[in-house]
Amino acid sequence: MNYFVENNSVVREIWGKSDTVLFIFAGAAAEFALNKAVDWLYFTGRLPTDPLGRLFSTVSYARKIIFAENEQALKTIDSIFIIHKVVENNRGRAIPEWAYRDVLYMLIHYSIASFEVLERKLSAEEKEEVYNVFYRFGMRMKLKDLAQNHIQWAHQRKTDMQNDLAKSDYTIDLFKQYKKHLGTVRYFILIEGQKLIIPERVRKLLGFKKISFITFILPFYKFSRVVHLHDLIKKLLLPKRYEKEIYKLDIE
């Protein structure tokens, strides 16, 4: 059977563990809040009322594509394209091309950064493999001006973050919503997790310090996976509303 991502791909390894996907989710939550086009996510009303659900659905869509048979993956990408066109028509103007690209590039960055924090450093070839998967995703979405490889992507992403990110009232409101939906303790853990994987540009805009307390407890969490206690830890830390969805993220 022909899959959108090959069975032995490092991309499947990255997106096949709930731990890594949750870190991707955390990073995306930080950067989403800074994007100058975040007002588009407020237009439908879903983001401020259910910010975690909205972000989780974005990550879930990406994951479905990664593990899907090629034809089904392309259909899913096409459906995402159509959904966004409907939103554009309802608002009466187009979502900026750069905003689409920013989301795609965001997923690339946090896929690599999250895996390297939790597992191991990726080789240049593996990073190129990650980029290629999302490049094909972007091409199917009819995105223009995409970098041709991972090295070009790294340079373009720095420029894009400089141009497309800014702290705004939306940023402040979204983080308030994160805290409201997560509670004080889980919100604290979210922020500390974000510190480990966000780029320097995002860190400066949010005013985050570089040091995260998770750095000190991460070795213990990795050990808990060896002795099969990590599921209990996640159960205590994660919102019950998303508990089932989160456990479904693990691919045996």
Secondary structure elements and pairings:
Blueprint: H1 10-15, H2 18-32, H3 39-43, H4 46-49, H5 51-66, H6 70-91, H7 97-118, H8 124-140, H9 150-164, H10 169-182, H11 184-197, H12 200-206, H13 214-226, H14 230-237, H15 243-247
Helix pairs in contact: 2-5, 2-7, 2-11, 5-6, 7-8, 7-9, 10-11
Number of strands: 0
Strand content: under 5%
Estimated helix fraction: over 70%
| Coarse shape | globular
Keywords, separated by commas or semicolons:
252 residues
Describe this structure in words.
This protein has helices at about 10-15, 20-30, 40-45, 45-50, 50-65, 70-90, 95-120, 125-140, 150-165, 170-180, 185-195, 200-205, 215-225, 230-235, 245. The chain has about 250 residues and is mainly α. It has one domain. Helix 2 (about 20-30) crosses helix 5, helix 2 (about 20-30) crosses helix 7 and helix 7 (about 95-120) crosses helix 9 (about 150-165). The longest helix has 22 residues, at about 70-90.
Brief overview, please?
With 252 residues, the protein is mainly α. The protein is built from 15 helices and no strands.
